[in-house]
Amino acid sequence: MVPPVQVSPLIKLTRYSALLVGMLYGKTRYDYLKPVAEEERRIESEEKKKREELERIAKELAEASEESILK
User: Fold this and answer.
1) What are 38-58's pLDDT values in tens digits?
2) Which of helix, strand or coil describes residue 8?
3) Which phi-psi region, left, alpha or beta, contains residue 68 (left: φ > 0; alpha: ψ -120 to 50)?
4) What does the DSSP 8-state code read for residue 2?
5) Of 35, 31, 12, nearest to 23 (Cα)?
6) Three-state DSSP class for 7?
7) Furthest-apart CA pair in the chain: how many Å?
8) What is the distance between the alpha carbons of residues 70 and 67, in angstroms, rounded to a whole number?
9) pLDDT confidence band for 68 (50 / 70 / 90)
10) Rounded Cα distance, 65 and 68, in Å
11) How far apart are CA 44 and CA 28, in angstroms?
12) Where are the alpha helices (DSSP H) in 1-71?
């Protein structure tokens, strides 16, 4: 095997600096997008409740009209 090559301290510093900057960017981006996603989930939840209620009403009306035909 070939012995490991000595990596320049400047390259090491650059790599770890880029890693740290990326982690900080990810954290700030996550903090920015988290409230937006929570609001979208809340709105979707409300729309789902309304949609389910309308489906339930439509189902009850369909069942009621089926029962009246059979009588």
Assistant:
1) 999 999 999 999 999 999 999
2) coil
3) alpha
4) P
5) 31
6) coil
7) 92
8) 5
9) low
10) 5
11) 25
12) 9-70
- pTM, to two decimals: 0.60
Determine the 3-state secondary structure of 5 from DSSP: coil
Q: Could you give the CA distance from residue 39 to residue 43 in angstroms, rounded to a whole number?
A: 6
Query: How far is C-alpha 50 from the chain's CA centre?
Result: 21
Question: Looking up tokens 């880029």, which residue turns up?
Answer: 18
Give the CA distances from residue 49 to residues 7, 55, 57, 62, in Å, rounded to whole numbers and listed in that order: 59, 10, 12, 20
